[in-house]
């Protein structure tokens, strides 16, 4: 599940400064400052950009300037489509005489279409025209019908209650699992109320997604990981999806802000199979560079955004390095090309493998008696990549959390080690 919430500032966690902003002004004031610089943009967009820059108004303003320039270029041609990759191309430096090295520049967005470029420059692979066309169309129709009753998720951002700018629901494989999800699991501090039985179309697509994802994962390990070996903490066994979050984006303005998916029930190095149906939208990714990392000073482009275009019936595999080291979002769009079946809507299915050893009975609850969330240190060089459990009860509108924090330990295959102290000890 997406953790929109992880963007919220948490002052109480002992993890020092993780995800905190750099200014003292209240968010409303920062938003007002940005709005005065970019009066044409909606509050939600401004908020997203502000959060993507850790609350820094100058950095957000700089990024918005870049996006606007790019937007103007785009509107001169086919909207939403890249004009040319040459603007991002830099000299290859010799390693490949034929293929130019392309690079995401800070403040601008590198648009990728070619699966080879996606695999080369992002932690994802993409498979176009993935399902048999009839199955893709049937699945789209089925989920558009389901989506009529999807809801927005509300969460707390700083001290305000905000709702995600798209709708969503969660599908699992049996009625027992629905019950278990509603009574044993917490998501960002609360119980889910809308959990549904997996639909016939989702069931039909599942083995195809499973096979393709495992094939892509093996290929990536063999061709791109150091020594052709899986990453530390990556489970060695096959990826078996047993649940699916389905998102609906109704129109160009619906979006999802920068986030990493929650690892709480997926465990470290989670892999996600993400199927897109209906209107094509941009999926953006950016690497998270620790703030006190000298390299980020040397390479100002390290956090440039990359946009992967997701047409109808494309499968995007988010690989094992994605959630820990990158953030992703679905950007609001200036305009979209309507789809013959779904009109302005895009449906996205993220198939997930809920691991038995990450079931809530094996993971800590805090003194609030709420399931902790699993996160990883992304922003600080010190402890970078270390996992921790923390209380998230305070992210529910109207509720306060506690200061529970505990480092999480896993063996090299991502199996949780027994907790070093009782969960209620703080
Ligand atoms: O709509 C998408 O492609 C991505 C959705 C997403 O990031 C999520 O469900 O966590
Ligand atoms: Fe996500």
From TrEMBL:
Alphabetical list of InterPro entries matching this protein: AlkB-like, AlkB-like_sf, ALKBH3, Oxoglu/Fe-dep_dioxygenase_dom, Znf_GRF
Keyword Zinc-finger (UniProt): yes
Pfam assignment, any one: 2OG-FeII_Oxy_2
Disordered: annotated span: 1-26
CDD domains: CUE
Keyword list, A-Z: Metal-binding, Zinc, Zinc-finger
UniProt biased composition (Acidic residues): 16-26
Domain Fe2OG dioxygenase: 240-355
Domain spans labelled GRF-type: 366-411
Calcium listed as a keyword: no
Designated name of the protein: Fe2OG dioxygenase domain-containing protein
